[in-house]
Design brief:
This protein is 65% helix and 2% strand. The protein is mainly α and 531 residues long.
Length: 531
């Protein structure tokens, strides 16, 4: 695309500027991916150089060190103990003893890693359940041995423990290198008292962060890695890992998700992804602009009982969504039609009113029955409209605080220059709001991609999709990827392997969109403009 000069750009009208900026945005996307690739390559090169320098330093330490330093390569912490660093030495030695004890006991780390049978197409676990005849009771009794889920979890923990040992071993080698350099330079080594004082002074942040880091690793990082590994297995309701061991299947689950042929899930996944992105776009920006408009109306001079209007809107936040959404969903239920075409009994207030006013086309009514929730188009429109009712109060409260901080003299200057209200909004209010709330828009968009409550409580994903074939879960027209993921992990036909793949793909979509949008929002690109 030909770049315009500043003068040529200023000569464009508003729509031409929008078109130019949009095309420029699309044209810049490949460049961002190229920059990302270059950054990753540079990171790999830096990592390679760091490995090389570290290996050279390790070899130099072993060559120049005395017998204590050399023996420290096998007995962790020995160099620290001999040189008076008792606390460090005990911690290193204790960690090594715990590691080797865990790894080489009969049912320790090596045992679980072997059971996992990584990089094969074999089962996770080597002993499936067997039926053994009980001559006393004259029945066959099932004896269970391996549990694939337990084996995989313990195997993963063992691998993480090995990585932690390698890191700790490397750390104590660095300690030996530091000891060697200090002794050669005639310096004084830190003792146990110095270490304790450092832990409560200049290194206090590490002391405080040690326990949270361990907790994050155990309860966040490990479950994420475990979920990723499940995507490469056959884990589902039939192969539950206990009664029937599940096995490694490689990339088969990913191939099935992207397969658009018979038996594949490509078409269903594509439709759900498209609707999820459409839903997130409208759910984000309708709430944003309408919430901003409500805040501007309430804050306008001359509006009375402003606190009352704000309180009325905030009531939708105070009432739990589990109650309000289920109730609102019933309001739109339509009653049955009588044989003569008149409105029958039942249905919600709004549904009856729409039928009585004949606002629902007769072509949409089948077998004298009609529900706005059983039509794909009307159901999707309704969930977006009801989400506006839920989301406006949040944006209104946020926008109220921001609007109060816009300098009043900007509007006064604009009025003197002859700007009308629309021009004041587009040139002052909106740019200021977008700059301040750019990160909020991004997080709200990502949140709406995974907005489970609104969809599930209003429709449960209904109406059902037709002609989707053998698809895990009851896929509906209003289902998002997150609600589909919930459906395929619950019930008697739970398909955990497919759910894991969907979870990974949701993460990829969210990550890519977040990176792209974050690099174009004014809060990031023009950070200095509003300082």
């Amino acid at each position: 695309m030909k770049k315009l000069t500043t003068l040529q750009y200023l000569k464009l009208n508003r729509f031409q500027k929008f078109g130019y900026n949009f095309v420029d945005f699309l044209a810049s996307i490949p460049g961002w991916f190229v920059k990302l690739g270059v950054a990753i390559w540079n990171l790999i090169k830096k990592f390679g150089l760091w490995i090389k320098e570290d290996v050279v330093d390790t070899c130099r330490t072993f060559k120049r060190g005395d017998w204590v330093i050399k023996l420290s390569f096998l007995v962790m912490g020995l160099g620290n103990l001999v040189n008076g660093q008792i606390l460090r030495g005990i911690l290193f030695l204790l960690f090594e003893l715990v590691f080797f004890t865990y790894m080489f006991v009969p049912t320790g780390g090596i045992y679980w890693i072997k059971k996992c049978q990584f990089f094969t197409r074999d089962t996770i676990g080597t002993q499936p359940p067997v039926e053994v005849y009980d001559p006393i009771k004259d029945v066959y009794v099932t004896t269970y041995f391996d549990d694939s889920t337990k084996v995989l979890l313990y195997g993963l923990i063992s691998i993480v423990f090995i990585l932690a040992f390698i890191y700790t071993w490397h750390l104590q080698i660095k300690q030996c290198s530091t000891i060697l350099k200090i002794k050669e330079g005639g310096g004084k080594l830190k003792g146990t008292k110095d270490d304790l004082k450092s832990m409560l002074d200049e290194q206090f942040h590490k002391t405080l962060l040690a326990l949270p880091i361990v907790g994050i690793t155990m309860f966040t990082v490990l479950p994420i890695i475990f979920m990723v590994l499940i995507a490469f297995t056959s884990f589902d309701a039939t192969a539950d890992g206990y009664k029937n061991l599940y096995s490694w299947v490689g990339w088969d689950n990913f191939n099935k998700i992207f397969d658009t042929g018979v038996g594949g899930l490509g078409l269903v996944f594509g439709e759900l992804l498209s609707w999820t992105l459409i839903w997130s776009f409208f759910a984000t920006f309708t709430n944003y602009f309408l919430g901003m408009a409500v805040a501007m109306l309430i804050n306008k001079k001359g509006i009375k009982i402003k606190k009352f209007w704000r309180t009325v809107l905030v009531m939708t936040i105070a009432i739990p969504q589990f109650v309000s959404l289920l109730y609102v969903a019933r309001l739109f239920d339509a009653p049955a039609l009588n044989i003569d075409g008149s409105v029958g009994e039942g249905g919600g207030i709004i549904g009856r009113l729409l039928l009585q006013l004949k606002l629902i086309p007769q072509s949409m009514i089948a077998d004298k029955q009609f529900s706005l929730w059983q039509n794909a188009t009307s159901a999707r429109i309704l969930v977006i409209i009801i989400n506006i009712w839920i989301g406006i109060p949040y944006v209104m409260l946020m926008a109220t605080g921001i609007l109060m901080n816009i300098p009043a003299d900007l509007y006064e200057s604009a009025k003197i220059d002859g700007a009308n209200p629309w021009q004041q909004f587009t040139r002052i209010t909106l740019p200021y709001m977008l700059f301040v709330t750019g990160p909020y828009l991004l997080t709200n968009f990502v949140g709406n991609l995974n907005n489970f409550n609104v969809i599930y409580l209003l429709t449960g994903g209904a109406p059902s999709k037709t002609q989707v074939g053998a698809v895990p879960g009851a896929v509906g027209e209003t289902d998002l990827l997150i609600t589909w993921l919930f459906k395929i992990t619950t019930g008697s036909t739970s398909d955990y392997k497919t759910a894991s793949v969907v979870g990974i793909l949701i993460f990829v979509v969210v990550a890519v969109l977040s990176l792209i949008v974050y690099n174009v929002i004014p809060s990031n690109r023009n950070e200095e403009d509003f300082r």
